[in-house]
Amino acid sequence: MSAEATGAELLLDEIREQPAAWRRLLDHEEEIAALGQRLAAERPSLVRFAAHGTSDHAATYAMYALRLLCGWTILRDSMSLSLSYGAATATPGELAVGLSQSGETPDVVAWLHAARAAGATAVAVTNAGDSSLARGADGVLPLAAGPERSIAATKTYTCTLAALALLGAHAAGPERGAALASALRGTADLAEEALPRLERAVEPIADVLSSVERLYAVARGLELATAAEVALKLTEIAYVAAKALTATSMAHGPVAALDRSFPVWAVAGDEATLPAVAEAVRRARDAGAPVITTGPEAAALDGATFTLATPHAPDPLLSPLLSVLPGQLFARTLALAKGIDPGAPRHLRKVTLAA
Amino acid sequence: MSAEATGAELLLDEIREQPAAWRRLLDHEEEIAALGQRLAAERPSLVRFAAHGTSDHAATYAMYALRLLCGWTILRDSMSLSLSYGAATATPGELAVGLSQSGETPDVVAWLHAARAAGATAVAVTNAGDSSLARGADGVLPLAAGPERSIAATKTYTCTLAALALLGAHAAGPERGAALASALRGTADLAEEALPRLERAVEPIADVLSSVERLYAVARGLELATAAEVALKLTEIAYVAAKALTATSMAHGPVAALDRSFPVWAVAGDEATLPAVAEAVRRARDAGAPVITTGPEAAALDGATFTLATPHAPDPLLSPLLSVLPGQLFARTLALAKGIDPGAPRHLRKVTLAA
């Protein structure tokens, strides 16, 4: 087996493993429920999140999901305000949540420790329970993703979404928690069914788009995290200059750059945000851009060049676990079509220790 | 004069007009001071911002500048939480700030009205005092930019930064307000001096990079807004797939896509954030990418392919008014080098009325 095939197979194995990883997370439900109940009892006045990259996209998801699940107000905090400018941000009565799959991202670790020192309750969301991030926290939300060997995060991303949703549901109460856990089991079943179909469906699209170097991923609301994550996968695995935009923001300037070699990946997650996504698709098509529509409401969008619909999750808040799958698979297949090893992107290491 | 020359000249006129526009804003200082004092007296528990595009980048600036000037905690709010999902976000005791140069961006108008109905104090930041946004607000922060005829916002962007800084300084007290106003006058003088030099300096860089279609703009802290705005100018005026990243996030995946045809625009704003920007520049050079360094600390960065240093502002919080100038000028000049009319980007209208 060639080195390329090995890297590509490894990434595919981890994409395929996701439903099993979500089920493993459910083995930790009791621990997550206890953490959610404890945090809810504190009635946090504000919940601050800090992260980079894939973990930051999970924080985008949390902004919507935790507000809708348990009413928390989420603030995406600036790490440099406290770390570079010496301006304390967190205060007592607040909750500070630092996300890092490795638990060793230096500024996230420093930010969480500073927030705790300032009196906030500190929670680490990490795949490494014995990491620096976990050791400096009042509570740890486990991901239970198991070792992730590909440089590009896939199962740790969806496990982070699932863990945050479980936490928020249990913070809302035991009944909501149990219902969410049951919906997560159903979502894993749906993913397992859908993956083989999606694996086949991305191949002809990657062939047609194999010369693509620029792309926008658009969504609005709960699926904005999906757009951000798909853009990052396409960038780090297939070297596409891919940018995520809210469907509405695309009209505020970026639409000008579109042309027939600059596609748009549109995620249609729910009826509430469908009009904004439909308008973005219309504008992209008017600009001559190929459009790939994905998500559970993909079929409701007119004018798509390609469609990769995903199942409706039993709980709509879990939809982003399914909506990201076509993007993960497409990024891998596009890399192969471009002659890139998707298992070992250049210039990257698994644990990022940048300043 | 050809249509292209007209559009290009109009945009250049508006870029050059910025120092005069900032001075015009100072004619409104009394009104801005009164608003700042009134809002400070309310001691807002949380300040929510909502905007799209260029105005959203001004909100990024506010997150840093207003925390540092008057201690406010800024939350970049989700408009879809309240407008699409029916989840009230604002509450009494909070301040809600909607930014729209035209004052007619539909979801920003609806979001601000909803926040006011929920009991928050509503402030409109707009260049149109008789707009829907202004009419539904408890207070209006004027921009005094005068009519902006180019589709790409330049003077309305820097006037928004200046107005927010003046507001925050007066919220901190009359002495801080007067000092900031004086520093703004000095910043206008520095911009007037620097603009002719920068206009000449961007030309050879645009010639060398005239085939560029992908770019990252990186910064950290206060200048993150500058990176976002430069990326948007390059996208809407020169059709570059340009993405802004925090200098640290670039290492979390995006660095993989860099190569010799994919440059990095690095903004070095202050010593506090210099290590993160220097690390990003080092990684970009290791990946073979051309690097353009800008900002007042540009000279402190090693390894630049091109350098476009800007003056140190009399108050470091006003540095972003100067740091964005090379990006505005480069976007225009790059468009001309690519044969694009920078005064009339395709697929865009001045006032965006998208869903």
From TrEMBL, chains A, B:
UniProt GO molecular function: carbohydrate derivative binding; glutamine-fructose-6-phosphate transaminase (isomerizing) activity
Instruction: Give every SIS domain span.
Output: 35-178, 205-345
Superkingdom: Bacteria
The record's listing under Pfam families reads:
SIS
Name the keywords, alphabetized: Aminotransferase, Repeat, Transferase
Gene Ontology terms describing biological process: carbohydrate derivative metabolic process
Q: Does the keyword Repeat apply?
A: yes
Its EC top class is transferase
**EC no.?**
2.6.1.16
- Name of the protein this chain belongs to: Glutamine--fructose-6-phosphate transaminase (Isomerizing)
